[in-house]
Amino acid sequence: MINKIMTADEAVAGVKDGMTIMVGGFLATGSPEVLMDALVRKGVKHLTVIANDGGLDAGQPAGEFAGKTARGVGKLLENHMVDHLIASHIGVNPKINEQIAEGTLKYTLVPQGTLAEKIRAAAYGLGGVLTPTGVATPMETEPDELGRTKKVMEIEGKKYLFEMPLYADYAFIRPTVADKFGNFYCAKATKNFNYVMAGAAKHTVIAPEKIVEIGEIDPDYFAVAGVLVESIAEGEKRWQI
Amino acid sequence: MINKIMTADEAVAGVKDGMTIMVGGFLATGSPEVLMDALVRKGVKHLTVIANDGGLDAGQPAGEFAGKTARGVGKLLENHMVDHLIASHIGVNPKINEQIAEGTLKYTLVPQGTLAEKIRAAAYGLGGVLTPTGVATPMETEPDELGRTKKVMEIEGKKYLFEMPLYADYAFIRPTVADKFGNFYCAKATKNFNYVMAGAAKHTVIAPEKIVEIGEIDPDYFAVAGVLVESIAEGEKRWQI
Amino acid sequence: MADLKQRIAKRCAKEFKDGDFINLGIGLPTMVADYLPEDIMVTCHSENGFAGIDTVADASNLDVDIINSGGTYVTAVPRAKFFDTAESFGLVRGGHVRATVLGAMEVAENGDLANWIVPGKKVAGMGGAMDLCAGCPEVIIVMLHTQKGNHKILKKCTLPLTAEKCVSKIITEMGVMEVREDGIWVVELHPDYTKEDIQAATGCELHFDPDMKAMEEE
Amino acid sequence: MADLKQRIAKRCAKEFKDGDFINLGIGLPTMVADYLPEDIMVTCHSENGFAGIDTVADASNLDVDIINSGGTYVTAVPRAKFFDTAESFGLVRGGHVRATVLGAMEVAENGDLANWIVPGKKVAGMGGAMDLCAGCPEVIIVMLHTQKGNHKILKKCTLPLTAEKCVSKIITEMGVMEVREDGIWVVELHPDYTKEDIQAATGCELHFDPDMKAMEEE
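Structure tokens for the assembled complex are given below, as produced in the milestone run.
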């Protein structure tokens, strides 16, 4: 039988320069830190990163509670591994605007709800998303993450933006609990992008805080099906403040 | 503070002749029986029903296990309360083809996955669904549930059917467990259409098998937010075979 | 200034009724929560992941799995429902979050709103603001009436929009205004100001409702 | 006939590998589960609500909350994940269910499939069949090669389609056929039949793969 459990380094071994990766988390809450650390050790470059935001920079507070190191996508930015960031918010981590100013980082902004639906459309085989969000704003007139012009469709008298699905090579996800088959859930407000990203990438890698035996917990806890999960990385810890 | 808990009769009091209702369940597994019974008592007519199927007829087996009475939507069909059934499967309950032959029932078939997405689009404010399902089949050429012609869109070289959102006046849903605020989940294979229908109708009514106090169970069990739920009907029982 | 902001937050809190599900933006909108009547139950949406924000966490109740959309550790009410981003904004887009309370850089007389970007300045991103403005049935703007003497309520927005024709109500220290088909109507005027004062502080023509009341502090 | 169906089911079971996630239709496709090798782990999708069907339930293990898509009470494997219809068919449409095994009324040489309706007869509905055929990377048809002597593998379908160009493989009692760009290729022929037999039983021109093997029973 297939064994999905491995080290974080093994789980990111297939990531290559120039790939597109998705990373779960919201201002790093719910981000898979052991996988970010493993990517830094591997030293891949020129990544396109799809995430809600750029995580946190070293010493930067999440609210009032300071972190000593960069967190989440912030680790990749700190190490200049990202060429293009596709996100809904880029104002918190100062590395982002620094690297934009230096000309080393390109960004594409996508409204948060639209970002989630574009990723879901990729995971679930839909041809795109029709959303009222962004109509009559720069979202309508600016090209999308691949430089494509957007269409506006009028449906029963209301305008909708037509947004394309968003795919990736890898999705890096942080469950709170997963079983050894890969069924998982994320506790409380750590769900954010961790659910829709599973299945939107060619390879789905999870780094659970806790790994349980199959059948150990009530299956109705699980939010995402283990059939979508290719690798389960060990070593993720509960965040310490 | 608002009290959402009431009898099934109170919960369906607002349903009027000619309304469109959604009913959760798959061959009646996961259907809210107390709400169907209350609708029968109320005797509303000319309903449009959106459901996976027509439930079960009296004496008809669900698999090998016979039921003595009609179940789920089957109760409404048995009492000739339905004018139009929008469903993915109409072959199990014999009342459907009988009433079609008599000319008293109209039907619209929608592929199961498309039906779920059309309902979700209504609940989540999307302008429609772009699905590869049904391309080059009668789904492409036949009008939709409101008689509208369907469009085919070619996106990056692949064809998709454009399907419209599906709204209702009432959604009748059967959770396994709900708290008194209306947060709920459906155990195991009773989820089916019970999750997407919440929020797709003007009024969402649930009939939980078990009602617990707020805070009594781990919130990560809940799949649907109580903010979507208007009424909680008492009296639903675990199905007895 | 703090007093004026409190005045605005207090008045805004009166907009809500028992059972409401609302979203409060960062800053002045967050202050509204402190003034919600205790005899009604209002559920506040935290777009990053749950319905039912309670208050800022302290050492005694901090859970590292619960932040708000500003990244602050917060607590959740017992009836809280946690969700992922797709569900969170599904609730928003579907119109289930009845109202969002936000600040603004500019509001136009037709309800257009600009509150997310100033061209040439550092880019922060819209986060969930565009979804909230496009999706919520009511968009309530709470802000000081002017910015360093400059008009913020205008005939037309000069900044890129967050959403078009979305604002339903504007609450400032000077009064309460409704955005209607034919323009902005003052429905409450604070006793400290005259009609002429509020018109002078506004960049488009104001209409005064025949039933205009005094904006009360308590 | 039962023997022929078992032959087909047994051969089909060899199509799957460790870790596969597949969907088995009602009838002959369901029989495939009985022949899956025990040393590999294949997860079977029940489109009504879970990944991980085990077997038909009996009085000792029956749970009224677990049916399959035919309405039969079944059991679930310990690694089962239960889901709603949106998630179930999201997995299907997204190509995550690697293969679906279905019966057919008609298959065309370009892979078109008709298996859901016969005009003029009672309507049952497509249920999840159209989604499965449009979404799964592999659609494997298992069926008796002909229906009362009539061809089922045709140049063009005469019945309304379930999906176009979706069938990748056809397994019958006579052999195993792959649907390729240029038509249908026989890759295995059962020893009971000759090339002429299988061609005569088929309504379109068959191609015989140079590496064609004997269809083995075990």
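Chain A has two domains: 5-126+165-233, 129-164. The mean pLDDT of chain A is 96. Further analysis is deferred to the final report.
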